[in-house]
């Protein structure tokens, strides 16, 4: 198995866009990418916009070569309506989707309907993958039941994915926002993967959209994952990397990982690239000084 992280927060955008190559199937997970419309009261900087365009092109090239595309939920940093990434990536592909009718909030139900109308005549087939197991040759893909997008189901539901090619095992959590709920970590513990890419909590919105108690649970549950699963690599990404102080917020997790010999990396580090935390440091791109509490409460978190 070869895992290639294409677009993530550590690469300068909002995304969890991932290409997985196995001998039986070329898989693309969540071919979408976006930017925070406002952060620190500021719009995207031109450097962020250029990076978005670069990575959208890379997503297009990789997704076009894939055979199987997975959409874990219908936020715009996880799927695209053809605005940034041409829809021909779906031509003759098997499309595996989060159930668009059940365990879904109103916003995502509308978005899924729009998206499926755009791609239904392009794809080879559409598979609803919630709580399913698929086997292709020696490849096994296990999809979780629909799980809340973080602690609050009002943001909708996502599906996690476990991929086993009999040589390596890989788990993609999608947007579980730090796994604050037992059902989030139950799937991870049952799967027991070698490599996990995990969406961390919204620590940049601590006290606004993330209660202190939910951060505490995320820390405890991530430590439990490290203790019980002991993955070789934990790629910590997405929401948590919008916070310039993410390592301090997750200090206990980093300490436990060191104790258990689990490597915690960003997607960029996994790929041998330099981190580009463009959103977390947007104020610097505009030549501003950061003032604690001055902007965070105005952040636009809608995806």
Describe the fold and architecture.
- The protein has 303 residues and is α/β, with parallel strands linked by helices.
- The chain has a single domain (2-298), classed as Ribonuclease Z/Hydroxyacylglutathione hydrolase-like (Metallo-beta-lactamase, Chain A, 4-Layer Sandwich).
- It has eight helices and 15 strands.
- Strands 7-8-11-12-13-14-15 form a seven-stranded mixed β-sheet. Strands 1-2-3-4-5-6 form a six-stranded mixed β-sheet. Strands 9-10 form a two-stranded antiparallel sheet.
- Mean pLDDT is 96; it is low at 294-302.
Set down the secondary structure blueprint.
Layout: E1 2-8, E2 16-21, E3 26-29, H1 46-65, E4 68-71, E5 94-97, H2 106-119, E6 125-128, E7 133-136, E8 139-143, E9 147-148, E10 157-158, E11 161-164, E12 169-172, H3 182-191, E13 195-199, H4 212-229, E14 233-237, H5 246-249, H6 251-260, E15 263-265, H7 267-270, H8 282-285
Parallel strand pairs: 3-4, 4-5, 5-6, 12-13, 13-14, 14-15
Antiparallel strand pairs: 1-2, 2-3, 7-8, 8-11, 9-10, 11-12
Helix pairs in contact: 3-4, 4-6
User: What string, H for helix and E for strand, traces the elements in order?
Assistant: EEEHEEHEEEEEEEHEHEHHEHH
Number of domains: 1
**Biggest sheet, strands in spatial order?**
7-8-11-12-13-14-15
Uncertain parts: 294-302
Query: What general form does the structure show?
Result: globular
- Strand pairing plus helix content: what structural class? alpha/beta
Query: What would CATH call the class?
Result: Alpha Beta
| N- and C-termini, Cα separation | 31 Å
The CATH homologous superfamily name equals: Ribonuclease Z/Hydroxyacylglutathione hydrolase-like
* β-sheet strand percentage: 15-25%
Could you say what the CATH topology is called? Answer: Metallo-beta-lactamase, Chain A
Radius of gyration: 18 Å
Mean pLDDT: 96
The helix count comes to 8
